[in-house]
Amino acid sequence: MSYTTLGWQIDDRVLTLTLNRPEQLNAFTVTMADELVDAYRRASADDAVGAIVVTGAGRAFCAGMDLSVGGNVFGLDETLDPSLEALRAGWDDPAIVAGVRDTGGRVSLAVYECAKPVIGAINGAAVGIGATMTLPMDIRLASDRARIGFVFGRIGVVPEACSTWFLPKLVGLQQALDWVYSADILTAEQALQGGLLKAVVPHEQLLAEAHALARRYIDRRSPVSIALMRQMLMRNPALPHPADAHAIESLAMLHTSRNDGREGVASFVGKRPPQFEGRVSDGMPAFYPWW
Amino acid sequence: MSYTTLGWQIDDRVLTLTLNRPEQLNAFTVTMADELVDAYRRASADDAVGAIVVTGAGRAFCAGMDLSVGGNVFGLDETLDPSLEALRAGWDDPAIVAGVRDTGGRVSLAVYECAKPVIGAINGAAVGIGATMTLPMDIRLASDRARIGFVFGRIGVVPEACSTWFLPKLVGLQQALDWVYSADILTAEQALQGGLLKAVVPHEQLLAEAHALARRYIDRRSPVSIALMRQMLMRNPALPHPADAHAIESLAMLHTSRNDGREGVASFVGKRPPQFEGRVSDGMPAFYPWW
Amino acid sequence: MSYTTLGWQIDDRVLTLTLNRPEQLNAFTVTMADELVDAYRRASADDAVGAIVVTGAGRAFCAGMDLSVGGNVFGLDETLDPSLEALRAGWDDPAIVAGVRDTGGRVSLAVYECAKPVIGAINGAAVGIGATMTLPMDIRLASDRARIGFVFGRIGVVPEACSTWFLPKLVGLQQALDWVYSADILTAEQALQGGLLKAVVPHEQLLAEAHALARRYIDRRSPVSIALMRQMLMRNPALPHPADAHAIESLAMLHTSRNDGREGVASFVGKRPPQFEGRVSDGMPAFYPWW
Description:
homotrimer
């Protein structure tokens, strides 16, 4: 991969994606946004990737938008001022994508769409977009040196990267409002208590723990099963009625039960490890994607 | 009741529904699914039932699908392969119901529709459908011997029984993804810490605690009030706007305030126990069901 | 302000709204409902108000509906019996507003619509509508003397004030159902453990803590940013897809980045306090309100 702001390293089906501007504390730029979108899409489609670990080079995870760039520091085109209807109508128009649509949001949607589990390994400061980019990930682990801040209010702007959709679901509305209004820099322990993190681990063990978790999630698993499970758990709770989930689950169960699930049952009954053959590149059911 | 896989026992308005294939660790079959759907519907309509406690005979709650049956172990018809639209169009078609729609999902929807509180008393292993069938219940209590596992990934299939709708709402998305990806067998204590259970109780006291809770929920209560409260709390959070809940609450309050609520207020002011007369069989308001 | 049931006191942009019928333990009446709706709307529009603290005069917060009034104690018109469709069609019809629409729900919707953070300072008993009126608030603090009860089932009615929408989102469905079925009077500590409260504080310090929190939320903040953040965090999680939040966040970021956000970034880079100039009365973006 030829990214200028990211490292891309695959070890035994675990991709480590590294925010790689350590001199700038991995501050977020439009280039980084575009490269992250590309990297998540590539990893989602690549059968060589089973799961993704995201971390930062050096002592920060991501210190937020790079405020040293000139003009609109968020990369937006201040000559545009569309209505909500005009934005929706021009959703994929390059001028709208580049000049109106929040860069962090484009990254978050790429994470949301991903067919592979995404584990955040927050190794240091994660502030602004550095914090919100972790919300659509499946799991967040943090080093005991991590510091996390939803600091948008301090500079008179608003939370982004789809965080107003994800954060209240992850930590509850009361906690989300408090963190956003106060704009506090949270310790890892505070973020854990608030429900944002799965665990806080000693700094030196963070990457090893993240990789071990990725292994537990993908070893002896069907990639097709994982991709279906991820999208079902991400999307179905937002559907109006459990019968909507029932419809999707039914087709997913019907498909898997006559493919990798047949091997899964046979291996379970036979008390041997399964040999799954389904692949995301060509083994997803006809109804996928269903959205 | 003449069920072959279930026990049905009413004591003073508390129905105990017992998964009753103890030699097979109450493993789930298509027959058990059909009987559970029937039993929940019957209990929902029967004024002799105020609340339902669900438990397992012997040492397991439910060890999952019975993998010893031949053919498609999930009871699905592998000759069918409908699109999502075709599934929706044929929703109640007997061939679709029997051959495509997930058996666990049919049970979960029957729990969701029920007019009475449902308390799970998880007395031992609750694995696969044994775990997911408890999610649409109102309350989950577990014995300290209970073990709970969302193990679908181990056999290459996917979570079902509407669990992709319920589980993230109950325990949060991060916890739900971790439990499903890892497919770990959780101890009762782990499930409690994760927010799945209301309480863990000593094994010998489990059924007594479940019955005591059922009593607290229904004694000196209006069955009409309970049925309305259950459906409102289950359904309204999925509506787009609090004003949608406001509309339903308004009609429910208007109805109850001139029926059992009148007696409720009079008894409260008079410092005497209420004598509610409303029944689910003939006392529900005209707008019920509103969905 | 000339309210008969409320106190209205502004100190340095923090409005303290006091339920003020201390001889009746601040029992809720139709007049109090109408005055609360008016007060929240007024505070939302008034640039002199940055945040709102709600508390009760005397030893109670609000002891519930005033059951001593004659006729329908909930203020409803028992001669009306509309269908759900008729209610929606007549939503703003004065006869429907006064005779059918739940009084507590009208108050909760006014809190939901408010452009300013609302902090509940629960100083004593908060029962029935006294409990449910706090749910659409941003934050709930309670005195160690507070007692909170969702007691509707005891008198044969149902939860209201949009609580069937808010409560399961705030404390989870299992906890919500248990509190509503049991109708228990919770101690402040129990409500804290259940996730309803942000904190329990010594009784004498409650108002000071609530005011200090309000200060932390609004000092050196843009009122436009706060209003946008509040409505986005309240509303966006109920949208079907994170892309729906992405659209709104994009326009909010575009607007703030060329208004108060420009000053915010400059002050941050310049290491000086920001001087925000945007006001809710005339500085909200063209797409607001977007609903």
